[in-house]
Design a protein that fits this description.
262 residues, alpha/beta
């Protein structure tokens, strides 16, 4: 069992799930309060880290994912920072909010992991909807179309129109993880989705999320026919980069599934 120091974005240590001033809920509450209840992403992610009591320990599902790829095999996580906000461009407003950033070493290679937890939540709107919605991204003066175009070029080397069917959340989550890797002087990055499954989980949402995750991965050159399976890291992916997103940091991507019925 690998013990990890958990902190919030201000550096305050987290010692429990909830119920105290030094708890995850007190120090790193989710942006969406509705996600803090049993069976939902924010609270289940916290519970996963404290499943063996205290101190917190790296979830075995995470360790298995890291073992699936040679570059991350033996990855030792030193600290986990919960609810991390990462600027992804020069524009104001909302940027990338990671559920968790993990920092560690894999055979001397400093590694940053971005975690996106999902339970009953989808990956949000497709990119096209931000461009076509007159009350959203397409309204006069909005920065969203420009933001997406910058990310599309930096991550895929393509225009927004060429990736319009992808989910915007996956795009900025992946980009934000690579940015965090540079920010923390890491030499490689991992973006992972942690899916929580209940006995009565909405199967339509689960299947749609998998299709969206698969479509995102298959949009990278060389991964067009990749078999996307939970528990398997894929990569390395080398992005063209841009003003905020660095080039030259190999990125890996994968998903784990945690069964809450067990």
């Amino acid at each position: 069992m690998s013990l990890v120091v958990l902190r919030n974005s201000n550096g305050n240590p987290i010692h429990s799930v909830e119920g105290g001033q030094d708890s995850w809920l007190s120090l790193a509450p989710p942006q969406q309060p509705m996600h803090w209840k049993d069976g939902y992403s924010a609270k289940e992610l916290a519970k996963l880290w404290f499943r063996c009591g205290t101190p917190p320990a790296l979830p075995e599902a995470f360790a298995e994912l890291f073992r699936s790829e040679a570059a991350t095999r033996g990855l030792q996580i030193d600290e986990g920072i919960c609810e991390v906000a990462t600027p992804i461009d020069k524009f104001g407003g909302m940027h990338r909010n990671h559920d968790q950033i993990l920092v560690g070493q894999a055979e001397g290679r400093k590694t940053v992991v971005g975690v996106e937890a999902k339970a009953e939540e989808e990956f949000g709107p497709v990119i096209a909807s931000y461009l076509n919605d007159k009350d959203g991204g397409a309204r006069p003066g909005s920065n969203i179309p420009a933001r997406i175009e910058l990310l599309a070029r930096a991550i895929f080397g393509r225009s927004t129109a060429e990736i319009a069917s992808l989910r915007y959340q996956l795009l900025h989550a992946f980009a934000g993880t690579i940015i965090e890797a540079k920010r923390r002087e890491a030499v490689q990055s991992v973006f992972m989705v942690c899916e929580f499954v209940r006995a009565n989980s909405n199967q339509e949402i689960r299947q749609q999320n998998h299709r969206d995750f698969e479509a995102f991965i298959r949009s990278f050159t060389g991964f067009e026919t990749t078999d996307v399976r939970p528990g398997q890291l894929l990569g390395p992916i080398n992005v063209p980069g841009g003003e905020f997103v660095p080039a030259g940091i190999p990125a890996y991507i994968g998903k784990v599934t945690v069964n809450l019925s067990c």
